[in-house]
Give the backbone structure.
Amino acid sequence: MSGRSANEVRIVVSPYRICPLGAHIDHQGGTVSSMTINKGILLGFVPSSDCQVLLQSGQFKGEVMFSVDEEQLPRNATKLNNSGHVKGSSIEQEECSWGNYPRGAVYALQKTGNHLKQGIIGFICGEEGLDSSGLSSSAAVGVAYLLAFESANNLKITPTENIEYDRLIENEYLGLKNGILDQSAILLSSYGCLTCMDCKTKEHKLIRSPDLNGNLNVIEKQFKILLAFSGLKQALITNPGYNSRVSECREAANILLQASGNEGTEPVLSNVEPEVYEEHKSKLDASLLRRAEHYFSENRRVLKGLEAWASGDLEEFGKLISASGLSSIQNYESGCEPLIKLYEILVNAPGVFGARFSGAGFRGCCIAFVDADRASDAASLIRKEYNKVQPKLASQIDQEKMVLICDAGDCARVI
């Protein structure tokens, strides 16, 4: 694409993430856990030697072309895109599924005072079939573009700063009301560790787990990560379920804060003490009570899970993951029938320590931690049982890729 030699090409590796514990509480300032897997986004690029950006994708048609010195505006701020095309036109629709992410990255960098002089010529691709899987491919893509533009312009940006920049892409540019779990996991993870993040204070730590002999960095040899796909694909911003549940959490927080005389406090559940919740939860209607119950019980599960991981207790860690999955179904009400059936199959599969939805639970896949020696047997049973209960959806999935066996990964980086 660029006419340059191969040794000038830089590559961003931006992994997908999983969240073993801490489901649906990051946007409320809860404590979450995460790690990356050894699958994700690759973005090959060279600095373009001017302001122009030219991008192609391995998954999507068309080219993205714009200039980094153009002012980028959030998608709902103008009827014209930044190439002068009317939103909704055939050209705009060609880009809509992927062209907004590099534009959003430039928007985030511009808004935070970074002056970009160099565009990029690049080719991006992800793991086939994982772009709508609930593994935070959107955050991985956003992070990939941030790292590429920063590298091309010799910007020294910390991972913590990039967490905020990717939040700007998703919250402000794209209009998605999610928290910072996804980009934090992608930017902060380290191989062999569980990343723990307090989404209220933004503080994080990496927790290593010993084997039975007390040796660190060995636990990853004891388990594999299963990804089991439902066949459902639906973009998060087109489904009102995610944003409406965030609003319900805030409504519950507002009622509890008012009841305790703290009505001036930001209405997020992390600002509600557990004792206040227990004292005033009767003031919540049934739906809001379920949302709040998920938040407070999930926070407890995260803290117990961190202890289990630090002691090398995969059995206890797995039980907490499955309990998180059940609360997501019963209290957060984020599941749908195919994903719930898939979850039930996973928790009963041989060698599985624990399982839950990945992502928001309205589409995509389930994840499971499984005994490394029994991963293949578990994968075979999951394929067989899901074909029985969801034959139509299962028929739309490549049977070899219906269940993937993965390892833990590392953080996003330029190589």
Notes: Residues 8 and 46 are 7 Å apart (CA to CA). Residues 286-310 form the longest helix (25 residues).
